[in-house]
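Hi everyone, sorry if this is the wrong subforum. Our group has a chain we'd like a structural model of before ordering constructs, and none of us has done structure prediction before. Sequence below.
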Amino acid sequence: MAPPQRSPLRSPEPISQAASTPTRRSLLAGVAALGALGAAGCSRVATASSTEGGDLLGRLRAAGVVRLGIAGEIPFGFIDTNGELTGEAPELAKVIFKRLGIDRVQPVPTEFGSLIPGLNSQQFDVVAAGMYVNPERCEQVIFSDPDYQMLDAFIVRKGNPKGLRSYKDVVEKKAKFATGTGYAEIQYAVDAGYKESDILIVPDQVAGLNAVEAGRVDVFAGTALTTREVVKKSSKAESTEPFAPLVDGKPHVDGGAFAFRPTETKLRDAFNVELHKLKKSGELFRILKPFGFTKAEMTDLTAKELCGG
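Answer:
Right subforum, don't worry. Here is the predicted structure as tokens:
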């Protein structure tokens, strides 16, 4: 799905919450199937309870189903060519919610920028889209601890002729720069001195790869995972080594997590308990590995750290 608004997002920027943050946008087959499932998932869930800590966990157990807000973004959460829900976040959700006594997950596809508004207007129960945790978002939702961490990387022409390995390089070498809609990489580039109006904004990493291969840009910035996956079959482009962008002058590592409504601390806390068990046992890596994640992307970061507190 990458993020940032001054503080890292998975693809944001200091623009609006909708545009802010990670959007590792929808790709390939996921997009086509979203429309069909979207209508089915539009009904609202029951309103939040005034019970301290929320009673959503109990209601979900009784119903036997939890609704997941996804953004159709490979590999974070999408509908595959068979019409099945998959991705790192949905597959992890299936395991954790099963352990919490909730047997079924139901996707509710939406635009990435609509995930937090949709969650807080109760269109679904939890955001399962690999969303980056950052202070701006932490003012609107509560997060589980991250299930992965992520660095940035570039898509460049084979051999990296301009030697682009950081946002500073992009600025100093006057490279033609592109990134995705709402990506955090927008702000990272701006913070490094790149003029925002000169950035080519494309829908996703596939479009970014195409732009690099066609010579329309010198570099496309995205998450290390999405860039390395999308160039695998390219004969003209490659992915650079992952690097940490600078935020306020310091190297920053993003972390992706599940988001919950602020009133539902009981559900978030129960989710965290199971998440940490999966981390300790190594099962978390086994769940995420098929989606291109490596051990370098496993993390002990906490939501508290990334929220700035």
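For your construct planning: The first helix runs from residue 28 to 40. Residues 1-48 have pLDDT under 50 and may be disordered.
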